[in-house]
TrEMBL record, chains A, B, C:
The keyword Membrane does not apply. Residues 7-108 form the Rieske domain. One of its GO terms (molecular function) is 2 iron, 2 sulfur cluster binding. This is Rieske 2Fe-2S domain-containing protein. Keywords: 2Fe-2S, Iron, Iron-sulfur, Metal-binding, Oxidoreductase. InterPro entries: Cholesterol_7-desaturase, Rieske_2Fe-2S, Rieske_2Fe-2S_sf, VanA_C_cat. PROSITE patterns: RIESKE. The keyword Calcium does not apply.
Length: 340, 340, 340
């Protein structure tokens, strides 16, 4: 079950070059491609003639041509040409999807009915265009349902157990961090502050700290993506709760788009401010983030395989589950609202 | 659903040396082997004792010996020996299949009832024994149902999109070729003629043409196999519709035998006449044909995976589907006739 | 269907070092680990919080700590610590299993009800601690149900067909061996004697024989494991039926523990007495036994795949099946007795 009438992340703009891309969203196979006008379009990934994936075809100025018998489709989904045949039947078309590109993120609108149009703009993510930051990212694939990734990102207490090699740090401090959970509309915010803690490996590799650090983790959940603002300053150097704070900043974008009921696309970027004396630190931040998210993937996929083994086993909640559980209730409500 | 009481291709004679071969036909696992008398026999691939595949066993003068406890089976399916035991129970036997070898093609009769005998000879394919041609072939496996391969072979308009590297040529000319579809009994014939067209890569690699060519494609569909006679002559050098035509001739045999409901054996040979100045052209013809059929396999398997994704999506027909659709109706009728 | 209220083999003591081991027994995923006190414990392999396998966690003095949020479990299954949380809910626990280590074999009690306690000691296997023998072993995995492995071990007549490279020997002699089958309680014994036979490769590689040998095979089946005492002496050198017989002795332990309905753990050791002039013969015996059991695995897995192909095909019994069939009846009875 998925919440519909929502924008979901479909990719990053830099992925779309001369070849179409096949991706399934919410159980619907879609082909995405750059049009002759330079925008990005999305169609049902199936030729209406003999069902070959259109993503096996080739891009032309006017659209996407099927690789079997050459039917040509416009970005609107209409068939423009059936080679060797004059008349093009009215049924010769495939379903189009509405796409919006914003801050280098490609969004797709997943309507509750075919043809349903967006009732709002695609989300903004200004960090990608903020000159104070540089960013890089990647697309990962999970053999696990999307909500397990939400759980993971909304509960950073796991850093001390899962990510000791990168952004972890002392497990005890993480589990006892001052934590505040806020809810507003369909957004859940989890705010965590850890004064005077040891800097973890990624932080010392990317920034110069004098010793202990004041560390913050501010997570904002939205159905389709999470924004995570983490960072640290030298202990006592200023308020770590103030958005104008100094020090080292990592800003994560996490697009979590269901592929199927049991698999998920994970579109992430990490942005950081640059330390004046460390020109290469962005490479370090990217590599350590990639490593961190690979560690999460190992844990979450193992968790899901085990949930399948123990079908009806009960789970208990602990103190870290407040944020994840609120997000789950928002999703349940959005699913109910768009189901009927 | 399969048409029964039919000969299907089970292999090529050259495949049968000192080891038995396991192959499933129409969901029935079969072991094929060369007997002590040099003929080829086929049995249910299961020892009647503890169900080991007989294809794991070893060939002897009198038959096939199971590799677990040594039960020996005659080509008739009767158990001839149970080592260490005097009495051989009457039930100690496995189901035999009727096999016929003709023109180096191994045919198996698939009856509607176990024990049902052929009511006709296995098909002839005289090209294999025609001194004007030399031929080579191979056995491919498809993860796709057999009818998608029929569709592909009965509709050569796809050559201009799928096989540009080998036998393709100009897509437009292919899609606009003069095409005639004939039906006679259980045979469908698709005849296509393309005067004054560009010779495709395989043709120029295998023959000497002066410039443009008159090109023909004559396809004959039979439930179990297709015979495809293609070729070309210098443009204007004589009628391309006359069976006595000169020039370059490629004659394809395409045995399409269902393995299961969703997979297929594809037994193909290609025969060509030899250009007097090009002694090695048969190697070229074989290699380019192998490449061509690998391209078809990629397309058809992608098509089938996508059909599974889009379970109930409708398909539209275009002008090239006349031949394939007639073949499908013949198969439907043959299935109905042998089902009851 | 499995017989419950039984000890099954869970591993060998030497496997348990600094990391926990995940193994599924009778469809139940279990984590096994060495405790701070040096004993071996077994728990349900699932954190009660978010279902991560506990086998992904780390061992500590007090127990096993989950690798996601750090919950610490005692060998009893009780959760001892939830980092960052004072109160530990009563439901924070996982199911423990009773384990017993005897003669370097790790046994697990599989009760018919969670919490059910053993009503007998784990089986003894004194050969492992008998100074006349040295032994080595390994753990194999079968994609086949456990009873096919029982069949194989209770019927050594297959040696002449499957194991010609190691312990086979003349197939005819094997199939005609004098064979006696005895049953006592839940134990089946198959005794086979082959006077004046050719020594097989493993025997000549591990011992000095003058020529022909008197060879014995004594198999004892128990639900959870088989003990197989094979060996040979120079032909005529003394009674091969007398437990005090001389010559070359191989004693096999074969723990056969269902993993799932369709897969099995196979825990084996082979012990041999040492020939005074052949110091390295134990390596030979081990390597040839490993090869032998790999040959069995190939046969049995092929057999099972074929049984799935031929769902309802009948099987016939031959003279070698007396022992295996008695074992099957004992298992059926034990399953009935513990099912209700």
């Amino acid at each position: 079950m998925f919440a519909l009438n929502q924008w979901y992340v479909a990719g990053f703009e830099w992925e779309f070059q001369e070849r179409p891309i096949a991706r399934t969203f919410l159980n619907q196979p879609v082909v995405l491609f750059r049009t002759g006008e330079g925008t990005i379009a999305a169609l049902e990934d199936r030729c209406c003639h003999r069902s070959l994936p259109l993503s096996s075809g080739t891009l032309e100025e006017r659209g996407l041509r099927c690789g079997y018998h050459g039917l040509l489709y416009a970005p609107s989904g209409l068939c423009l040409e059936i080679p060797g045949q004059e008349k093009i039947p009215a049924r010769a078309c495939v379903r189009p999807y509405t796409v919006s590109v914003r801050n280098q993120i490609v969004w797709i609108w997943m309507p509750s009915e075919p043809g349903g149009q967006p009732d709002c703009d695609a989300p903004e993510y200004a960090v990608h265009d903020d000159p104070r930051y540089r960013y890089r990212g990647d697309v990962y694939h999970y053999d696990a349902p999307y909500q397990l990734i939400h759980d993971n990102l909304l509960d950073l207490s796991h850093l001390g157990y899962v990510h000791l090699r990168t952004i972890g740090g002392n497990a005890k401090i993480h589990m006892h961090a001052e934590t505040k959970v806020e809810e507003q509309g369909n957004v859940v915010r989890v705010l965590r502050y850890m004064p005077s803690s040891e800097p973890p490996p990624t932080y010392t590799a990317a920034w110069r700290f004098d010793g202990l650090i004041d560390r913050w983790q501010e997570i904002e959940f939205d159905l389709s993506h999470l924004r995570i603002w983490t960072g640290a300053n030298d202990a006592g150097a200023g308020s770590m709760r103030d958005a104008g704070r100094g020090g080292f900043h990592m800003r994560g974008f996490h697009g979590v788009t269901p592929e199927t009921d049991v698999s998920t696309h994970y579109f992430w970027t990490v942005a950081a401010n640059r330390h004046p004396d460390m020109p290469d630190m962005m490479d370090t931040v990217y590599e350590q983030s990639a490593l961190t998210f690979e560690e999460d993937k190992v844990v979450i996929e193992a968790q899901y395989r085990n949930m399948l083994q123990f079908q009806h086993a009960p789970q208990i909640d602990i103190h870290v589950d407040v944020g994840p559980n609120r997000a789950r209730r928002i999703i349940e409500r959005l699913i109910r609202e768009t189901a009927g």
